[in-house]
Specification:
Blueprint (H helix, E strand, L loop, with lengths): L9 E4 L9 H14 L6 H7 L4 H11 L6 H16 L9 H11 L2 E4 L4 H10 L8 E3 L12 H10 L6 E5 L2 H10 L2 E4 L11 E2 L6 H8 L19
Parallel strand pairs: 1-2, 1-4, 2-3, 4-5, 5-6
Helix pairs in contact: 1-4, 3-4, 5-9
Length: about 230
């Protein structure tokens, strides 16, 4: 059984597929690109790109589709399609606003996203979450985005806490790898069914034990959730 630390000093959230229901936007765009090249798009293909930057996703798609030199072109097409989808709006995922508010009351919080700044800001505003975050960090603002640790290390530095005293909330293997490399504890709500590394694993940010943990952060008597089903400024 795993758990989250009672004495966490800060919390850093991923955005896409964790706080905001933007993965549907990405999936529509990815499906269209695969279809244009005569390929279906399902869980196997989604696993190749989920959690990655647009550039890394473009490279992965190009390799899969048999056009290894077309990564940059596919990345540009992907961003354009996602931009159009996201312009229609994206909602906060269940429990996201409540959990963010509870954590923010007790400890510093931030967002660390593999989306570019433009799409990150759009997603947070669309979901009504932007005003909760003083700090957010995007993929185009660090030398090496996820799965490298840079985004999480930058967030922890900005929040004034050591990584080992911070909890990351993630939904993909790419993000989990980044958080682990930085030294954070990791809570996971998967976007895809997979065996993912975690300290806490649940099906939704709305799980009661998770909200109870967040509400008691910093009071010295925090109960720890134990379920394990195994940027800059906004």
């Amino acid at each position: 059984m795993g758990s989250l630390p009672a004495g966490a000093e800060a919390v850093v959230f991923d955005c896409d597929g964790l706080l905001v229901d933007t993965e549907a936007c990405w999936t529509v765009a990815e499906t269209a690109i695969f279809a244009a090249h005569g390929h279906p798009f399902g869980p196997e293909q989604k696993a190749l790109v989920i959690g990655r930057t647009a550039e890394a996703a473009g490279a992965a798609m190009a390799e899969y589709l048999g056009h290894p030199g077309a990564g940059a072109e596919l990345a540009d097409e992907l961003l354009g399609r996602v931009r159009k989808q996201l312009a229609r709006g994206a909602a906060a995922l269940p429990g996201a606003a409540e959990l963010v508010r509870a954590c923010r009351t007790a400890v510093p919080i931030a967002v660390a996203s593999n989306s570019p700044r433009e799409l990150l800001d759009t997603a947070l505003r669309s979901a009504g979450l932007a005003d909760y975050f003083t700090h957010s960090f995007a993929a185009d603002e660090v030398c090496s985005p996820k799965p490298a640790p840079d985004l999480y290390l930058t967030a922890c530095e900005a929040l004034g806490t050591a990584p080992e005293h911070c909890v990351a909330f993630e939904d993909s293997a790419t993000g989990i790898t980044a958080a682990r490399a930085a030294g954070l504890h990791v809570a996971v709500v998967p976007s895809l069914r997979a065996d993912l590394d975690h300290d806490w694993l649940g099906t939704s940010l709305a799980e009661r034990e998770l909200l109870d943990w967040a509400r008691q952060l910093g009071d010295g008597t925090v109960r720890r959730p134990t379920r394990t089903n195994r940027k800059g400024q906004v």
